[in-house]
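User: I'm putting together notes for a lab meeting next week and I want to include a structural view of one of the chains we've been expressing. I don't have a solved structure, so I'd like a prediction I can at least talk through. The sequence is below, exactly as it appears in our construct file.
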Amino acid sequence: MSSIHPPPSPPVLYSFDSPNEMTEKLAAFIVKAQKEAVDKKGRFTVALSGGSLPKQLNKLINNPAVKWDKWQVFFADERCVPLDDDDSNYNLCRKELFSKVPIPKQNIHPIDVSLLDDLEELADAYEKALISEFAQKDSARFPVFDLILLGIGPDGHTCSLFPDHALLTEEDRWVAYIEDSPKPPPRRITLTFPVLNHSLRVAFVAGGRGQS
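Assistant: Thanks for the context. Below is the predicted structure for the 212-residue chain, given as structure tokens.
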């Protein structure tokens, strides 16, 4: 895998003594990335994943340094379920973050649930949403997010990119679909490795014994 998608720069590992310290440092990291992006171009493009990550963003709530009106939020991956489903990453982010902060609704970009029966169309539509945001702004061949925030599963998967899966070799698409996820639910869409590798910053946030 590394020979196909080499990392753009060496990773930097930070470890913390407590979950509270980790969430505080994570919020400070995000605010710094936001400031640099807003100062440069007037907006902040970010992709979020699900799992434990949304709850770990709690130090952004009631944080006066966060300029929510400048955020454009996409999802690093999404389960192909209704937006109010318990498996929806959007719904998880809504419960843990969006409902508690003054982010404009139009700045959040969920999947088009009218296309749930056709995963190829769903992935194409989400890719078009990315093109609309990034074309002529921050993209060449691939979009350049200011920040992508990811978790990592016990099996090493991130987004909906699972070890030994064919999607790991995708080199052209911005968004791909998967119908056979090893972890339920099986039907999902995901950003691809080239998109992750073109982001200005990618942060993997992991806590607990299962992710040590």
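A couple of points you could mention at the meeting. The radius of gyration is 16 Å. Confidence is low (pLDDT under 50) at residues 1-5.

User: Perfect, that's what I needed.
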